[in-house]
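Hey, I'm writing a tutorial for new members on how sequence and structure tokens pair up, and I'd like a real worked example in the thread rather than a made-up one. If someone can provide the structure for the chain below, I'll link this post from the tutorial.
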Amino acid sequence: DQKVSFGGEVVEENGKKVMVGIGRLVIDPATNATGTFAILVHDNYQNKGIGTALAHKLVEIARDRGLEKIYGQVRCDDPGAEVFASLDGFEVLPGDEQEKRVVEYKL
């Protein structure tokens, strides 16, 4: 399958299970060597390591699929961009756009 999505974290609120984070990887069908990723964490659960755990899981899936690199985009005003820059292997690439940057991980 070229698309992989998974829930990253489920918590209990008021007796109900709630998914608070999700990761997604879409493999480029033209090359099967690269993929784009996205991570989304509910605002109330930011800065709790959920995005980091999702990023590590995406790297694991990409390695298992034999990819050479994965990349995604972050907004420059998003503190998550700094988190990616601090994770081993992730690099926030310089760019011309004022509002967003590409994050890359070479496997």
